[in-house]
Design brief:
Elements lengths: L3 H5 L19 H13 L16 E8 L2 E8 L14 E8 L1 E6 L2 E6 L3 E4 L6 E3 L6 E8 L4 E3 L19 E3 L10 E2 L5
Parallel strand pairs: 1-11
Antiparallel strand pairs: 1-2, 2-8, 3-6, 3-8, 4-5, 4-7, 9-10
């Protein structure tokens, strides 16, 4: 009996049957791959990282059609507050250090190299509970335009919010984890 390869021939030798390589990702798997690729190439992000004890630091690393990539740093104790990402899906990748993700299912420790993929409406809080700084990469598709804040997933109301409230943070350059300050985008 002949194999598929013997019947159809080698697909790599039939160029018109190959899918053209896309310039930009368009599937969840491709966005995960983009995050892994950036994480693996420290030269793309390491020189940009700053730590700020007064406010959260973030930097938009890249944009493309229908997505954006953010780099965030976390000093010990910094957190995002409980939020979702509106209509955006995302990939969170821990580049250095350790972060804790709190959801209604409980806490999850995310060590360097860990990735979380989430759909629109996924509510979580990300906190640096460790004693050292941490760095994370966030890919949003489509690009993040709103970040609804929620009651604390750990059982209490958000600080400064009435019980049961749900506020929305909107921004053209919004990103996960409610950043307070952005560095200028370098050429």
């Amino acid at each position: 009996m002949e194999s598929d390869l013997q019947i159809a021939g080698d697909i790599l030798s039939v160029q018109h049957l190959l899918q053209p390589q896309r310039e930009h990702p368009s599937t969840v798997a491709e966005f995960v791959g983009l995050a892994r690729s950036i994480a693996g190439d420290r030269s793309q992000w390491e020189h940009l990282v700053e730590y700020d004890t007064a406010s959260r630091w973030y930097h938009r690393l890249r944009t493309g059609p229908g997505y954006e990539v953010w780099l965030l740093s976390w000093v010990p104790g910094q957190g995002s507050g409980t939020h979702d990402h509106g209509p955006s899906s995302g990939v969170l990748t821990v580049l250095e250090g350790e972060l804790t993700e709190h959801t209604d299912r409980g806490p999850r420790t995310l060590a360097a190299g860990s990735q979380r993929v989430f759909a629109p409406g996924y509510a979580h809080e990300v906190v640096n509970d460790a004693l050292d700084g941490a760095i994370s990469l966030h890919v949003y598709f489509p690009g993040l335009t709103e970040m609804p804040m929620h009651d604390d997933v750990r059982g209490g109301a958000r600080e400064g919010s009435p019980e049961g409230s749900r506020d929305t943070v909107r921004s053209n350059a919004a990103h996960s984890c409610s950043p307070a300050r952005q560095t200028p985008v370098s050429a």
